[in-house]
What we know:
The complex is a heterodimer of chains A (144) and B (344). Chain A is mostly helical. Chain A has one domain. Chain A has four helices and two strands. The mean pLDDT of chain A is 88. Chain B has 344 residues and is mostly helical. Chain B has one domain. Chain B is built from ten helices and six strands; from the N terminus they run H-H-H-H-E-E-H-E-H-E-H-H-E-H-H-E. A two-stranded antiparallel ribbon of chain B has the order 1-2. A two-stranded antiparallel sheet of chain B has the order 3-6. Chain B has a two-stranded antiparallel ribbon with strand order 4-5. In chain B, helix 1 packs antiparallel against helix 9 and helix 6 packs antiparallel against helix 9. Classes of the chains: A mainly alpha (144), B mainly alpha (344). Chains A and B meet through helix 1 and helix 2 of A and helix 4, helix 5, helix 6, helix 9 and helix 10 of B.
Amino acid sequence: MVENVTGGDLYHLWRVSEVNLPRVADVFYDANRLLGGPGKNAGDSFRENTSIYPGSSFLTSSVGAAWEGVRAEMQTMMAQIGTTILDAAQGVRAATQAYLDVDRANADLLNVYLHDPLNHDPADIASNPPAPGADDNPGTPLPT
Amino acid sequence: MSDQPTTPADLAGARYETTVRQQAAKLRDELIKQTIEDMESWLKAAENEWTAAHPDKPFGSPIPPQEVEQYRAKVRTEYFEWVVPAFERYLTPDPDDIDPVIDSLRKIEGMFEGQADTAGNFTGASPALSRINDVRTDMAAWEGSFKNNFIDNFLTPLQSVVPNQRKLVSLVRGQLECNKIIYIRYRAAVLKLLEKGIHATQMLNNARDPKAELWGTLIACAIGTALGAVTGGWGLAATAVLLDAGGTLAQGLIPNPPETNDLSAPTAVEVGIKISQAMNALDHDTSEQERLVANALNEITGMLENNRSKAIFANTAGNFSVAAPQLDDATGKQITDGAFRPAN
Lengths: 144, 344
């Protein structure tokens, strides 16, 4: 069974876990960061229409409170999906590693494949893992 | 959906603020001026009556002129001091302050544009999301139960979650846009109230018969009826009332409200009272509209929490969440023993 694995097979998994899924996750983390950053309520967006307790002259906004509720929920939702995607990538990475760990003969399969210019171009940004800090790097989501 | 509601220039920013302050000060001055005139004409009438009733007393009115002057000063400094602060309350909220929020939601909608076609391919605006298809292709080189689980419980649901998210964000944005429209109409009503109030006061000055000066608060937003079909599968409460931004804009950004409040009155003091009653009506109607927006947002939050907590707890794919694939928890032995193997 294990002898059947080739560098090309593992390369498919490497693409899934290192190149593609992080970029998919980044879309959700980006949405998370929009909802937690510029998407947050700023300034005088909502009219203060509700006393904080009966008779109080200190007012808050019912719409503002409701928006904060749905905004926070959506922000968590985006983070949850992004994190699930990165977890799935980690699962695929672990599976790759499981095959590399089988024996010495397997250990270099992926490395050899990746370093052959006929198979992989390390300079092609879109075919490589997103660089740290790059636009398509998932980074970290904003906590709510 | 529709174009973004844009605040008309005369209701936006510093221009609106200046107008409100100037007009409120003008209204106060007119009310003071007119009240003093009312007072003088009343005083003259009282004096006439008093002189007629007491022909034996030569010196006219029993109120000494110094005292009258005192009362006049009181009218100037005390009677209508509430007018300007009361209208300054209307300087907030600024409808444009919500724009960064609406823009962010629009951006997310743009990112999530697209859907899975019948062949199972995701076609969308975002090149990054299209990589979901590449994942599927790469995974085709593998087989076994972990691979099937990965596709069926993680990857395919991910494709169908995206349009749901987009619809959700667009619904929420619609509610916020309605809220913005409410505030635009609110500002329009404030300026109209000031204009009509000044007019009603000046009319007394012209000594004509006071004509009715009618004023109305604001038009209610359109209620979304077509949304039910889309949101049915989400388990949104049947009683949920969502506002429809497109339909609301179709009413016209600032439609003319039915004018039910008459600001005219025989004296300036009474006009002042009617203006303050009109302000109450405006506050009430605005709160009522805001209540609808807040309720709609709360309904959406409840629906979202319900969907997400159930699906995440059970680790199944939901409307707004995806499940973690079994591969996440697989041991190396399970994998190399064949549950996840190359497909050749």
